[in-house]
Design brief:
By secondary structure, the protein is α+β, with helices and mostly antiparallel strands. The protein contains three helices and three strands; from the N terminus they run H-H-H-E-E-E. About 40% of the residues lie in helices and about 20% in strands.
């Protein structure tokens, strides 16, 4: 069961998100609000990017591992459009 959308709704109720313009600001703000419950794992980062793109209309890039012709590759995908992007747009 996925609890992240509910947590994001609680975050939006407590924090003013109108000034958040990009994913990096969202990430720092959400880390501050969640405290030690946010572990910055790839799954949590992807869920935060998806919720931010859906509810706040911000663009976010997530890191994914895919297999092409039997080889593992790391790619970066824009959550909002679903297109592959360059690594420079990824927020560490």
């Amino acid at each position: 069961m996925n609890h992240f959308p509910k947590a994001f709704e609680q975050y939006q109720e407590k924090v003013d998100t109108s000034n958040i313009k990009n994913f990096q600001q969202l990430l720092y703000s959400f880390k501050e609000w969640a405290g030690n419950k946010y572990k910055d794992t790839p799954k949590q980062r992807t869920a935060l990017a998806k919720e931010g793109a859906k509810k706040l209309r911000i663009s976010a890039v997530v890191k994914q591992s895919i297999t092409i012709k039997g080889k593992q590759r790391t790619v970066y995908r824009d959550v909002k459009t679903g297109r592959f992007t360059k690594k420079e747009q990824y927020v560490e």
